[in-house]
Amino acid sequence: MSHWNYRLVCTIDTMGNEVFGIEEVYYDDDNHPTMCTDDMSIGGYDSVEDALEAYTMMYEAFNAPVLKYPEDFYESDDEA
Questions:
Q1: Cα 16 from Cα 44, distance rounded (Å)
Q2: What is the pTM of this model?
Q3: CA angle 29, 35, 69 (to 5 degrees)
Q4: CA distance 14 to 12
Q5: Helix and strand element counts for the chain (H, E)
């Protein structure tokens, strides 16, 4: 079953420096990461409860290994 969560993702900026951010990461049915957001911005919640839930999920990202983009991501045949 495909799903998503928040993860720390490392990208390389135009100067060759590593940049870390919390991104939404989407997985295929085999639990391989297939895509992620790339704007490094979080917000736009409908309620305080929604924001709290999202930030709780983001906090959990710190307990998982950092994903390197694009090395750790698989190509997906799914259309988003």
A1: 30
A2: 0.66
A3: 120
A4: 7
A5: 1, 4
